[in-house]
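Q: My labmate handed me this sequence with no annotations at all. I'd like to see what the chain might look like in three dimensions before we decide whether it's worth expressing. Could you predict it?
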Amino acid sequence: MKLKPALKLIAALVISGSAGAVGTLFTISAIPAWYATLAKPALNPPTWVFGPVWTALYALMGIAAFLVWNKGWGRADVRKALGFFLLQLALNAVWSIIFFGWHDILSAFICIAALWLTIVWTMMLFYRISKPTMYILLPYILWVSFAAYLNYSILMLN
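A: Here is what I predict for the chain of 158 residues:
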């Protein structure tokens, strides 16, 4: 069955957003309770910033995945790139579970390091298929880099 581009775009956005939804399940209750008690670095943004930023990033991820998927599922490079995309999306969701759900800051840092590497690899694979997709994912890798700094700083401060 061949999906129309609009359906592919919607599916890619929903799949990307689902990682955010999973993360939110573990984050919402932890922010006013556990997270509020942690010592944080000076560069830690206010908590209200995270929701809008992540919403925009999940939308960008969905758009990038759509652009790659739209090049043709029959292509092996497209399937491989989207496989890595799904892996990084899973690591993204798992990080929230580890950090906010389990309160395991060290394991979360290890997870975010793996996430960072997987995003970089995904960006390289996407670039080979559709050059704009790598640039679409640039804000994502920058934000995850900043999140890794925050995770590490919180680990060191607590």
